[in-house]
Amino acid sequence: MRYASRHANLALYTNKGKSKYRFTQGVLELGSGKTIDTSDLQKVFPDLTGDAKYGLGVLFVEAPILETDSDQITDNRWYEVVQGEVIYNGKKYVASQKVFVEDKTKLSGTGKIALTFETNDYNDMREEAFKLQHLLVGDEVTGYHRWDKGGYEPRNTLDENGVGYIRKS
């Protein structure tokens, strides 16, 4: 079985705290006929009845590789092209591209697809990571915004009043 997660390096742990399954770039491939063994996994998101959930449907989903004419394809879902070329609504998609399938009857081609998450559904923290890595405070980029000048006051120096400055604190 193949599983997909919106978390690139998701790990599922045993009750003893050891990593049992690790997703690589949001995908866990166990091979044909193999599924996640939940017998010793830590309980994640238990429901009101006390049943132990381990993340299926919340942290990750089953995402088997499907032919374009498969009955398992569901309308109004995101799919990723895994192999070959897929045509949806007259547009061609190739491996690693994502397509939102509103009507599976408009899907054709010899390629293979798998269920995935919308691009915006990923936890994209690049903007915040840039601020943490390269700026001291985080507002340096907008620090010279001037309402009285109608927006940004252009600067062309690299001193503390110019472009590229970093606030001291």
Task: Please describe what this structure looks like.
This protein has 169 residues and is mostly beta strands. The chain is 5% helix and 28% strand. The chain is built from 1 helix and 14 strands. It has one helix at residues 126-134; strands at residues 2-5, 11-13, 19-22, 27-29, 60-62, 66-67, 77-83, 85-88, 91-94, 98-101, 107-108, 112-115, 145-146, 151-152. Strands 6-12-7-10 form a 4-stranded antiparallel sheet, with no helix packed on it. A 3-stranded antiparallel sheet has the order 4-1-5, with no helix packed on it. Strands 9-8-11 form a 3-stranded antiparallel sheet, with no helix packed on it. It is globular. It starts with a strand and ends in a 17-residue tail after the last strand. 13% of the residues are buried.
Short note summarizing the structure:
This protein is mainly beta.
Order of helices and strands: EEEEEEEEEEEEHEE
Shape verdict: globular
Order of the strands making up the biggest sheet: 6-12-7-10
The tally of strands reads 14
* DSSP strand content: 25-35%
The percent of residues in helical segments reads under 10%
Mean pLDDT: 79
- Distance linking N and C termini: 51 Å
Query: So how many helices?
Result: 1
Radius of gyration: 23 Å
* Helical/strand content category: mainly beta
The low-pLDDT segments are 165-169
Q: Biggest β-sheet, characterized?
A: 4 strands, antiparallel
